[in-house]
Structures are given as structure tokens and as C-alpha cells.
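dumping the sequnces here before i forget
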Amino acid sequence: DAGVIQSPRHEVTEMGQEVTLRCKPISGHNSLFWYRQTMMRGLELLIYFNNNVPIDDSGMPEDRFSAKMPNASFSTLKIQPSEPRDSAVYFCASSLFGGATNEQFFGPGTRLTVL
Amino acid sequence: DAKTTQPPSMDCAEGRAANLPCNHSTISGNEYVYWYRQIHSQGPQYIIHGLKNNETNEMASLIITEDRKSSTLILPHATLRDTAVYYCIVNAGGTSYGKLTFGQGTILTVHP
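..and the predicted 3d for all of it:
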């Protein structure tokens, strides 16, 4: 398996623009997580899905952020409108909840820069 | 989930064992201890986890005290590639669906 795939790997945009980050989880995994990492706040969980259903979105910073998982093999994280403080590395992770370890497999991340 | 406390940084000589401590004094009976690490510019990577017994895999060993209030991750023969931030996380599973709450972790520097 190719592991968790994220695109784009780097995104530079201007304040006010819409940004869409994409994630393809590992085939067969039933849980998907979106994280954000900054120097100031560290690694924060934004939202997680189980069987394509959002379970906990309490980490989503505000209404400008939205996440969807239309099927088991694809998820998006959208920021509209983007602001400079959204600049961070965004990681997607997937796991097989109920498996032997519940290990989360992380993607390579998307480095977002909002000017 | 219970809170964890780790030293902010540690050093280790290459080839020596690296022992990374973690306190989790408020851990509940159904909570597991997980260890992840993050090498610079990469996503975190699972290392090992345990409930109350000591565990060992190809990457590391996990020693959990009998009262479960603390644990130690052991890298038996550290290499330069083990330089990373190491996170100790307590997770209950269940309806949290394996949710992980990352703290600041321990920056481990392995030097020649």
C-alpha cells in the first residue's frame, strides 16, 4: 500500500482565498483524522471520522474550516476564507479502529502558507 | 484522556540505550499508553503501545510501572536516525475511536 496520500504537499495562497486539502487514507481503514501543526500550538487534532461519519469536530478552529468524507477513500479539509494565521502543516492520518493496535498512519502533510 | 508529562529534551550517545520517561499519574484503568515519534518534517510515526504489561517490538521496549502512573520508552541502541520528537500519549479507545492528544513531547538528540 502507498500509505496515506495527501495533496498538495505545499500550498501558497493569499488571504481570503479558498484552500482545499485532500487526503486518501489507507485502504481498509475506518477512521480518519485531520491534524494541524504549528510551532506555537504543536500538533492539534481538528476532526476525526469513523466510517465516513464525523465523530468529533471540536478541534475545528472556527466556521471557516470544514471537512468532508464523501466515501471511505477520500477526505477534504477546506478553509474559506483563508487567513495568515492558518499557515501550518496539516496532517491527515488513518487507522483501523478495532484492529490490533489502533495505530494511526500519518501522511506526509501539506504545508500551507497564507500570505 | 489522562494528561502526560515528559522532559522537554534529552541527549543520547549513538549506540547507547535511550530511556525516555513519561508520567501519567491520572491514567484510568482502561487507558493505554502510546508512543509516537516525529522526525523533522515528517508525519508522526507509531512506535509502541501497552496497557499494563511491558511490551517489546522491533523498534523499542515499553516499561510500564506496576501502578501504571509512569512509563519508559527504551530505544536499545540509539542511532542518529532516532533523533526526533517523542510523544507519550494516553488513550482510552472506545468511543474516542483511537483519538490521540499530542503534548509537547521530548526532543531526543542522538549524537555521535
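Chain B is about 0% helix and 45% strand.
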